[in-house]
Amino acid sequence: MFDIGFWELFLVAVIGLIVLGPERLPHTVRMAGAWIGRIRRSILDAQYEITRQLELEELKQRLLKIEQEKDHENNETIIHPVNDEEKNLDDNTNNVLHEPNNDSRIDDLNNERSGTSR
Protein backbone atom coordinates (compact mmCIF):
# COMPACT_ATOMS: atom_id res chain seq x y z
CA MET A 1 0.00 0.00 0.00
CA PHE A 2 2.53 2.59 1.14
CA ASP A 3 6.13 2.24 0.08
CA ILE A 4 7.66 3.13 3.43
CA GLY A 5 10.89 1.47 4.48
CA PHE A 6 12.41 0.87 7.88
CA TRP A 7 14.42 4.12 7.99
CA GLU A 8 11.38 6.23 7.12
CA LEU A 9 9.41 4.64 9.97
CA PHE A 10 12.37 5.13 12.32
CA LEU A 11 12.57 8.80 11.39
CA VAL A 12 8.82 9.30 12.00
CA ALA A 13 9.14 7.55 15.39
CA VAL A 14 12.06 9.77 16.45
CA ILE A 15 10.21 12.94 15.40
CA GLY A 16 7.08 11.73 17.20
CA LEU A 17 9.12 11.03 20.36
CA ILE A 18 10.63 14.51 20.25
CA VAL A 19 7.34 16.29 19.55
CA LEU A 20 4.94 14.29 21.76
CA GLY A 21 7.28 13.08 24.44
CA PRO A 22 7.60 9.59 25.92
CA GLU A 23 4.36 9.86 27.95
CA ARG A 24 1.95 10.62 25.10
CA LEU A 25 3.64 8.73 22.22
CA PRO A 26 2.40 5.17 23.11
CA HIS A 27 -1.19 6.36 23.51
CA THR A 28 -1.00 8.34 20.23
CA VAL A 29 0.41 5.34 18.33
CA ARG A 30 -2.39 3.09 19.68
CA MET A 31 -5.03 5.62 18.70
CA ALA A 32 -3.52 6.05 15.23
CA GLY A 33 -3.46 2.26 14.79
CA ALA A 34 -7.10 2.01 15.87
CA TRP A 35 -8.14 4.75 13.44
CA ILE A 36 -6.19 3.16 10.60
CA GLY A 37 -7.86 -0.19 11.37
CA ARG A 38 -11.33 1.40 11.34
CA ILE A 39 -10.62 3.14 8.05
CA ARG A 40 -9.36 -0.08 6.48
CA ARG A 41 -12.44 -1.99 7.68
CA SER A 42 -14.72 0.74 6.32
CA ILE A 43 -12.99 0.63 2.95
CA LEU A 44 -13.17 -3.18 2.82
CA ASP A 45 -16.86 -3.09 3.78
CA ALA A 46 -17.57 -0.54 1.06
CA GLN A 47 -15.68 -2.65 -1.51
CA TYR A 48 -17.60 -5.74 -0.44
CA GLU A 49 -20.94 -3.92 -0.66
CA ILE A 50 -20.16 -2.50 -4.10
CA THR A 51 -19.05 -5.92 -5.36
CA ARG A 52 -22.18 -7.50 -3.93
CA GLN A 53 -24.45 -4.89 -5.56
CA LEU A 54 -22.73 -5.40 -8.92
CA GLU A 55 -23.16 -9.17 -8.68
CA LEU A 56 -26.83 -8.77 -7.76
CA GLU A 57 -27.38 -6.44 -10.72
CA GLU A 58 -25.65 -8.93 -13.03
CA LEU A 59 -27.84 -11.75 -11.70
CA LYS A 60 -30.97 -9.62 -12.22
CA GLN A 61 -29.94 -8.95 -15.81
CA ARG A 62 -29.32 -12.66 -16.43
CA LEU A 63 -32.67 -13.58 -14.88
CA LEU A 64 -34.48 -10.98 -16.98
CA LYS A 65 -32.79 -12.27 -20.14
CA ILE A 66 -33.72 -15.87 -19.29
CA GLU A 67 -37.33 -14.87 -18.59
CA GLN A 68 -37.54 -13.00 -21.89
CA GLU A 69 -36.12 -15.99 -23.78
CA LYS A 70 -38.57 -18.30 -22.01
CA ASP A 71 -41.51 -16.01 -22.84
CA HIS A 72 -40.38 -15.87 -26.45
CA GLU A 73 -40.15 -19.69 -26.60
CA ASN A 74 -43.60 -20.01 -25.01
CA ASN A 75 -45.05 -17.55 -27.50
CA GLU A 76 -43.49 -19.47 -30.36
CA THR A 77 -44.92 -22.78 -29.13
CA ILE A 78 -48.37 -21.18 -28.89
CA ILE A 79 -48.25 -19.17 -32.12
CA HIS A 80 -47.04 -21.96 -34.41
CA PRO A 81 -49.93 -24.37 -33.70
CA VAL A 82 -52.45 -21.52 -33.94
CA ASN A 83 -50.98 -20.44 -37.27
CA ASP A 84 -51.02 -24.05 -38.49
CA GLU A 85 -54.68 -24.45 -37.51
CA GLU A 86 -55.56 -21.15 -39.15
CA LYS A 87 -53.86 -22.28 -42.36
CA ASN A 88 -55.66 -25.62 -42.25
CA LEU A 89 -58.98 -23.84 -41.73
CA ASP A 90 -58.28 -21.50 -44.65
CA ASP A 91 -57.31 -24.46 -46.87
CA ASN A 92 -60.44 -26.38 -45.91
CA THR A 93 -62.61 -23.33 -46.50
CA ASN A 94 -61.05 -22.77 -49.91
CA ASN A 95 -61.49 -26.45 -50.79
CA VAL A 96 -65.15 -26.39 -49.82
CA LEU A 97 -65.82 -23.17 -51.69
CA HIS A 98 -64.11 -24.35 -54.86
CA GLU A 99 -65.65 -27.82 -55.06
CA PRO A 100 -68.43 -28.27 -57.62
CA ASN A 101 -72.02 -28.68 -56.37
CA ASN A 102 -71.22 -27.05 -53.04
CA ASP A 103 -74.05 -24.57 -53.38
CA SER A 104 -76.50 -27.08 -51.95
CA ARG A 105 -74.13 -27.91 -49.07
CA ILE A 106 -73.65 -24.24 -48.24
CA ASP A 107 -77.44 -23.72 -48.33
CA ASP A 108 -77.87 -26.73 -46.01
CA LEU A 109 -75.31 -25.32 -43.55
CA ASN A 110 -76.94 -21.89 -43.63
CA ASN A 111 -80.36 -23.45 -43.02
CA GLU A 112 -79.03 -25.48 -40.09
CA ARG A 113 -77.59 -22.35 -38.53
CA SER A 114 -80.79 -20.40 -38.91
CA GLY A 115 -82.83 -23.29 -37.52
CA THR A 116 -84.83 -24.04 -40.63
CA SER A 117 -84.53 -27.17 -42.66
CA ARG A 118 -85.84 -28.15 -46.11
Description:
89% of the residues lie in helices and 0% in strands. The chain is mainly alpha-helical. The longest helix has 93 residues, at 6-98. The mean pLDDT is 81.
| Coarse morphology | rod-shaped
Binned strand content: under 5%
- Label the structural class: mainly alpha
* Amino- and carboxy-terminal Cα gap: 101 Å
Q: List the uncertain runs.
A: none
What's the count of strands?
0
Query: What's the Cα radius of gyration?
Result: 42 Å
Overall mean pLDDT: 81
State the share of residues found in helices, binned by percent. over 70%
- Element-by-element helix/strand order: HH
Sheet with the most strands, sense and barrel status: none
Work out the helix count.
2
Keywords:
mainly alpha, 118 residues, 2 helices, rod-shaped
Outline the secondary-structure elements.
Elements: H1 6-98, H2 103-114
Concise summary:
By secondary structure, the chain is mainly alpha-helical. The protein is built from two helices and no strands.
